[in-house]
Design brief:
Number of helices: 10
Number of domains: 2
Structural class: mainly alpha
Distance between the termini: 19 Å
Strand content: 5-15%
Oligomer: single chain
Shape: elongated
Order of helices and strands: HHHEHHEHHHHEH
Strand order of the largest sheet: 1-3-2
Number of strands: 3
Amino acid sequence: MDIDPPSDSDALSQVRSLSRPARLHFMYALSRLTPGDIWHERGGNVLSDLTTYKLRQRGLDVEATTEEILSTGLLDYAENRDAYMHFHLKNDLIAACEETGIDYAKSWRKDEILDAILKDAPSYLKSSLQEKGVVTLSDDFEQKLIDLDKYADRLVPPCQLLFFV
């Protein structure tokens, strides 16, 4: 089994700069934001929700680790169509149209309303996702983070053998 660590990079340096609890939170979040996971397909997720009960039960301060992780620049606030569709209800989009003065028809499907908003007020949706805290992998670091996630996945079985058998 080939388990070479990812090459040194700005991304890896940023991960190393995190405190241990933040690094644990980040690695779990990373596993949920990489291709193949449902949150990647949905355009991201709220970082504070990307934990487990076990982590929180063991004292993980989600608010503090979330703030620490966001300060690294490894994650960006989501601003893609999939995230808009997933994190907004049709009524949210109708309210956005009314607030921004965009014409729409109540008979329109959710994606039609979204198209109108993206055309006339894309910054409104972007700021609403940011307020919700929806994040995704930073474009600048995405491939290095995917490599790091793959490396971590390959380490799990040997670590389980060493420590838990």
